[in-house]
Amino acid sequence: MIAAGSAPPGQVAILHASVERGEALARMLRPAGHQVTVVRPGPGALSTLLAASPDLVLGTLYFGDQPLKETMALARGALDPELPLVIVLGREDADAVVAAHEVVREPVDAGELGLRVGSLVARQAERRALQKKIDQLAGLNRTSWVFSLAGGAEALFGQIARYSAEALRAEKGLVLLYDPERREMEAQVPGFGLTREQIARVRYPVDGEPRDRWNFRMNGPLVSNQAASDPHLLPEVVGALGLRSVMVVPLALGPQITGLLLVGDRPGPAPFRDEDLGMLQGVAAQAAVAIENHRLHDEIKEANIRLHEYDRMKSEFVAIIAHDFRSPLMAIRGFAELVLEDADLPLDSRQEFMQTIMDQTDDLARLANDTLLISRLETGQLEYNWQDTELAPLVLEAVPLGLARHSLVTDVPAGLPAIVADADRLKQVVTNLLNNAVKYSPEGGAITVRVRERGDQHLVIEIADQGLGIPADQVGRLFQKFERVRTDDHLRVSGTGLGLYICRRIVEGHGGRIWVESEPGRGSTFSILLPVDARAATTPSRSDNTGAARSASKA
Ligand code: ADP
After folding, report:
1. How remote is the CA of residue 481 from the centroid of ligand 1, in Å?
2. Residue with CA nearest ligand 1 atom 19
3. Is the CB of 441 under 6 A from ligand 1?
4. Ligand 1 centre from 476 Cα, in Å?
């Protein structure tokens, strides 16, 4: 007798007209662990054979009246075109030539039969495993193709959900994404086999969850065939989605968990098996890349739109600046021409014209400086020079010369703490606001500079005047580039609308805020809120970078 060896057992169907002989053959195979079904010819024989879903068929040349070949053709068509066949030849068939994987002759030696069946079953198992791998790879290939064709984000989530469910023969599929800002996991519409209302209910914080819940980074994927009673799962999620069985795998980009891929409810008593995870993980890997590609694509699209907007703003800026440069230049040229061409010009007129030329030149220089400063502020080239700064002397130095028609009140309490700021830039802001207070208070009046502590981390500088004031509907835009109050009284004063924009950018560069309160005809108060330490307030904290990945893992 030949030993059957340690080949893995399988499902064997024996097609035999004689029950006794069929059972005798079955008894030879069962000790090796094979599940053997003996099928007799007659009505229902084929469906019994198919239900057995054998790894190998063993039979005699004739199965009742029908040649074995025909029965095999039907079985192979329904089950597997490569289904192996072992033919047992009785003495009377001894010379028949048959296309089978093995031929065993009567009287059958149990050991020899066991060996041949064992090796064929093992080969069939290997072949099936290989076929499964090929199917998986082909499936993954198709996945990337399908996902890369997706349109908007919703279309992509819908495709991933549908594809995962179909690939895993599940009734439900769903993508969940991690939102690092809210530190929440959120289900994405549309899913597959789920309503929008169900999906809308699935959103949960990833922090502070009980320890016995599944932790996807530490524990990896999860398979559960009793979802309702599984302590690893969040009951409200299981309830919202009505899950009986579920498989969840993380969506990951390198070490970072970006979300979860879930399939649920495959029919059957113990539907999801660990070996199904490989397939879902393969889909998840493709899905994570597709979602990331989609996000990057959106980001590029937005950046492109912003770039066009910058381009438009730059052209507009250049056009306005060119215009603002041309007006004083024309004035300078005009007055210079008058002085040059008229030798008899009275001295006081000559002096007046020369003064205008000087004023216009100053305006031009200011405009050139503002333009350069704005370009440095907007391109991030302006480096602040942080230093300990005393506000009392800074305010005094910022007061412009020649306040003939105005009175100035400075109200800066003694003993104010020094703050960390860029003293020169801050002085520029205060000078600018004081200049405006003078320019837009044509009747004179008091101008007050007040400094106060606000809590122990901030200071407020206020510059108040009793001038034209600002109509309420125009207050909002004044801190934008080129914005000026559009009343005759305001426009009579020469200006470019760049000063307040520069003030805002510098104050924000200090981690502060600037605003104005005003009553038309009665005056305006500009306020600047500054942190006591601008350097600390504007240095981004480093600890935020790792937070997302850490908390995502707790989903
Ligand atoms: P500019 O004074 O060069 O026009 P700003 O950017 O400094 O530019 O100011 C923008 C506009 O805000 C001014 O044109 C003016 O209409 C209005 N404005 C600024 N300061 C005052 C103020 N103290 N009172 C009334 N209006 C003001």
Report:
1. 11
2. 436
3. no
4. 12
CA of 430 relative to ligand 1 center, distance in Å: 13
| Single pTM value for the model | 0.51
- Protein residue whose Cα sits closest to atom 2 of ligand 1: 495
Do domains 11-131 and 316-378 share one topology? The answer is no
Superfamily of domain 387-537 in CATH is: Histidine kinase-like ATPase, C-terminal domain (3.30.565.10)
> In the chain, what's the furthest Cα-to-Cα distance?
145
CB-ligand 1 contact for 470 (6 Å cutoff): yes
CA 491 / ligand 1 centre spacing (Å):
9
Q: Is the CB of 180 under 6 A from ligand 1?
A: no
Reading the block at residue 455, the tokens are: 């809590």
What CATH code would you report for 149-299? 3.30.450.40
CATH number of 316-378: 1.10.287.130
CATH class of 11-131: alpha beta
Cα–Cα distance between 148 and 434 in angstroms, integer? Answer: 59
Q: Is the CB of 465 under 6 A from ligand 1?
A: yes
Tell me the DSSP string of 327-374.
HHHHHHHHHHHHHHH-TT--HHHHHHHHHHHHHHHHHHHHHHHHHHHH
Tell me the per-residue pLDDT of 139-184, one tens digit each, with 9 for 90 and over: 666 655 566 655 788 889 999 999 999 988 899 999 999 998 888 8
Q: Where are the domains of the chain?
A: 11-131, 149-299, 316-378, 387-537
